[in-house]
Amino acid sequence: MKTFITDQDRAKLHAKFILPIVVDNMLQDQETLDDVAEYAMNEILSELCPDTALLCIGLCATHIAAHTAHLPISRALSSQAEAIIEEYGGLWLAHDTGTPMDPAAICDQLSCIPEDLEALRDLLEATISALEESHSIAAILCDILALQAETHCQLATIELEQMNIRPPNNKQKRPHSAVPAATTDNIIPFPHYARSQ
User: For the CA atoms of the chain, what is the radius of gyration?
Assistant: First the structure.
């Protein structure tokens, strides 16, 4: 369910999640990335359900891709992150405004979450490998986001199995893929499986 995301839509998503703004500030040395900040980032992301976490990580990844634009891998990271924002950002905004959504389309989108999380994880890890300094701010942020993408991918796979939702066999895959988020703010809520806050 790909939708055109305007600059205003993107601003709404950043304002909602906050973390992408923090990541951008850290990359520009406007905020400090220390042990406390790392712990806080992991806590925030771990409290999300797979669908919302996927969108949040995607938004964060766009800033990392822009900051590391000199790396060839960043073009792929940017492309994947933008595809996720277009796919899930529109759904989140529709959910946020109470716009009716087609249940069949929602289930179809849910089935792709593990794949999309896995793709983000792979690209974030590839970005770490491409960076010359493994302890740079960009590398540390990539590591945090990749770890969370992996965790949420596993959670989403389990939850989708419990819901008896499986990826369509003939669906065209994106270049890469990966998936967590919180209760009522889910883009596409996992029925009966959303974790409590």
Answer: 16
pTM of this prediction exceeds 0.85: no
Give domain limits for the chain: 35-97+106-185
Distance (Å, whole) CA 14 – CA 5: 12
Are 159 and 167 a contacting pair, CB within 8 Å?
no
Tens digits of residue pLDDT in 100-133: 677 777 777 788 899 999 999 999 999 999 998 8
Which is nearest to 131 in space by CA: 79, 31, 123? 123
pLDDT per residue as tens digits for the range 154-178: 999 888 888 777 765 544 444 443 3
Q: 147 burial class (0-12, 13-18, 19+ CB within 10 angstroms)?
A: middle
How far apart are alpha carbons 23 and 57 in whole angstroms?
A: 10
Instruction: Name every residue whose Cβ is closer than 8 Å to that of residue 29 and which is 6 or more positions away in sequence.
Output: 137
Task: Return d(Cα 167, Cα 61) in angstroms, integer.
Answer: 24
Residue whose entry in the numeric block shows the structure tokens 């949040």 = 56
Q: Cα dist. 143→3, 16, 127, 135 in Å? A: 29, 23, 9, 10
Contact 176, 117 (CB under 8 A): no
172/147: higher pLDDT: 147
